[in-house]
């Protein structure tokens, strides 16, 4: 039955194998969880704050940031295709407000800096689904999480 599902997914053009998680790593505090997949994508999850109703709950994680870390490459000297699959993720000790992590495939190690910054309400941020401007008194805060490659 499962093979039929995979075949069906392939016939409609989905790359199912790229979404298979290949590595998982918590940061030092356990607040952030990074996953890497066979498609070269890194997804970072952030733990939800504990609620007063359930102070000792296991905690749930929400998507914090996602980015494409590695792309498929070809080594012409060795006539070898290099997969984009993330082999390992390693969080670095936090030195400031930004978080840093390393991601690696079979060829390259990349250093990433994950920062959070406030965003001013302007342009599309002020429009509702119908394109009408929102009331500014209803906008409390906007934040944008950004991952940038440092090397």
Automatic annotation (TrEMBL):
Gene3D superfamilies cross-referenced by the UniProt entry: YVTN repeat-like/Quinoprotein amine dehydrogenase (2.130.10.10)
Domain of life: Eukaryota
Cellular component GO terms, alphabetical: protein phosphatase type 2A complex
Keyword check for NADP: no
InterPro entries: PP2A_PR55, PP2A_PR55_CS, WD40/YVTN_repeat-like_dom_sf, WD40_repeat_dom_sf
GO molecular function per UniProt: protein phosphatase regulator activity
Keyword terms, alphabetized: Repeat, WD repeat
Protein known as: Serine/threonine-protein phosphatase 2A 55 kDa regulatory subunit B
